[in-house]
Amino acid sequence: MNEKINNKNQKLGEILTDMGRVMVAFSGGVDSALVLKRAQEELGDQVLAVVVASELFRKQEFEDAVQFAEDMGVQVYKTEIKELENPEIVANNPESWYHSKKMLYSHLNELAQELGYPYVLDGMIMDDLEDFRPGLRARTEQGARSVLQEADLYKDEIRQLAKQLDLPVWDKPASCSLASRIPYGIEIDKRKIEQVDQAEIFLAQLGFNQVRVRHHENVARIEVTPEQITELMKHREKVELKLTSLGFAYVSVDLRGYRTGSMNEELPESLLDTKLEKVSV
After folding, report:
1. What's the sign of the alpha-carbon dihedral 80, 145, 155, 5?
2. Position 15 pLDDT exceeds 50
3. Counting Cβ atoms within 10 Å, is residue 55 exposed (0-12), middle (13-18) or buried (19+)?
4. Within a 10 A sphere around the Cβ of 179, how many other Cβ atoms?
5. Could you give the residue numbers annotated as active site?
6. Residue 46 has what DSSP assignment?
7. Residue 149, SS3 per DSSP
8. Hey, which of 60, 150, 203, 241 would disulfide with 208, CB 3.0 to 4.6 Å?
9. Does 273 or 249 have the greater pLDDT score?
10. Cα distances (angstroms) measured from residue 234 to each of 203, 229, 266
11. Helix-then-strand count for the chain, H and E
């Protein structure tokens, strides 16, 4: 581990120590796992992992996150939010991400006040400042702390630290709300979410762990890594059969391959050029 990363890790520890008692929004991914592990190391039993269920996230991810936190020996609090009851989220425009995160952070703040935790921590990282992230504004407004950003940590550094700490998710692919598979302007509903969910679960079972199924009304656009496109075509018939059984009329493969935030490629430059500064605390 190089000195630069060690210094950032030390800074992270100092930030957490100064807080004394924290609630961590825990998704089970590598970023929030590092926050939770380091908080546990610095603060012991003064840490609460809150795992939030939502219709827009895979049920298995919720269950895995709960089990992961329990295996770490951290106190776990399970809760849920109903995002499909919010018309601003269902509308599925760029600002919907803001309303989604606002709902989450507001809920976490209510829990923190009720349970006596002065700080709510999330897993936002420095890389999040480089993409369109309306959720950062909601985070700032609601007063949550992004301690990995405060310690100036980037994804590759976080993975190195997580590996050093023997966190089993150190190389886990990034996950995101299933709503991210639906183009802006097309309303989100339970059926579309279930179609995407079942399609991606099926493809994962075939061995494609980095996969997205983008929902373009009656067309499913599959993204796998460029190296796996040839392998995907070997399963063409069974993939087409499965996805059409889910309600898609057509099944396509994106030749550019898997990439996070591909739906943001349709956004105007005026939105993509808007960057939010790291909060100084």
Report:
1. negative
2. yes
3. buried
4. 24
5. 176
6. S
7. helix
8. 203
9. 249
10. 12, 9, 30
11. 12, 7
Which of 61, 146, 142 is closest to 98 using CA atoms? 142
CA pair distance 175, 36, nearest whole angstrom: 18
User: Which of 142-151, 233-242, 254-263 bottoms out in mean pLDDT, i.e. has the lowest?
Assistant: 254-263
Residue 107: its H or E element: helix 96-115
Name the pTM for this structure.
Answer: 0.86
Answer whether residue 57 shows pLDDT above 80.
yes
The residue count of the chain comes to 281
Residue with tokens 């739906």: 263
Q: Kindly tell me if the per-residue pLDDT of 281 is higher than 60.
A: no
Largest CA distance in the chain: 57
Burial class (CB in 10 A: 0-12, 13-18, 19+), 275: exposed
Element (H, E) at 78: strand 75-80
Q: Answer for the pair 72, 166: CB distance below 8 angstroms, yes or no.
A: no
What is the C-alpha radius of gyration for the chain, rounded to an integer number of angstroms?
Answer: 19
Cα separation, 197 vs 200, whole angstroms: 5
CA pseudo-torsion sign 138, 144, 149, 153: negative
